[in-house]
Design brief:
Elements: H1 2-27, E1 42-43, H2 46-63, H3 67-81, H4 88-98, H5 103-121, E2 125-127, E3 130-135, E4 143-147, E5 166-171
Antiparallel strand pairs: 1-2, 3-4, 3-5
């Protein structure tokens, strides 16, 4: 009977570990292999559209705690923001993300980037929705981020508190 109990406990632990591993794999997916966009967004400025696409990649990399890919995405976002008027503050925050592989520093800079991106995006969406999300626990006072999906995927805590936060506003 004892062996049976140990076997059941082992199977439960194995199932939980495999489920967690699969979840981490899903969070760290390769963006280049994505076939379907969840929400079709259109902007009145192709440079803003390009910048937002790179912003989303950085956000997803931070959700998956993938600091190396967030760095690479920040380099691409920097290039895109150079073509957007009045983007100096967003560019500065993006360069901070590109300059470090420290996840904590990247997430702090991402908060600043999110605030600046909101300013750049308002009035440019011609189709679709961008959700302005808020986590009250992030960065010792709360932090915002933008998302093209309504479901909360927290870039400040990732898998530790994936769904912590709420939609504060919808940008259309």
């Amino acid at each position: 009977m004892k062996n049976l109990k140990n076997g059941v406990v082992t199977l439960l632990m194995l199932g939980t570990t495999m489920g967690y591993a699969q979840h981490k794999i899903e969070l760290n997916h390769d963006h280049s292999k994505m076939e379907i966009k969840v929400v079709e967004l259109e902007f009145n400025d192709k440079n803003i559209a390009n910048a937002y696409e790179h912003y989303e990649h950085i956000k997803n990399d931070l959700v998956g705690a993938n600091s190396g890919d967030a760095q690479k995405g920040a380099v691409m976002l920097s290039e895109a923001l150079e073509k957007v008027k009045s983007s100096d503050a967003a560019l500065s925050a993006t360069q901070k993300i590109a300059a470090t592989d420290n996840l904590k520093r990247q997430r702090k800079a991402f908060s600043d980037l999110s605030n600046e991106m909101e300013t750049l995006l308002k009035g440019t969406v011609t189709s679709g929705k961008i959700y302005k999300d808020f986590c009250p626990m992030a960065l010792n006072g709360g932090a915002y981020w933008l998302s093209s999906i309504e479901n909360i995927r927290n870039p400040y805590y990732g898998v530790r508190m994936l769904s912590c936060g709420k939609v504060e506003e919808v940008i259309q």
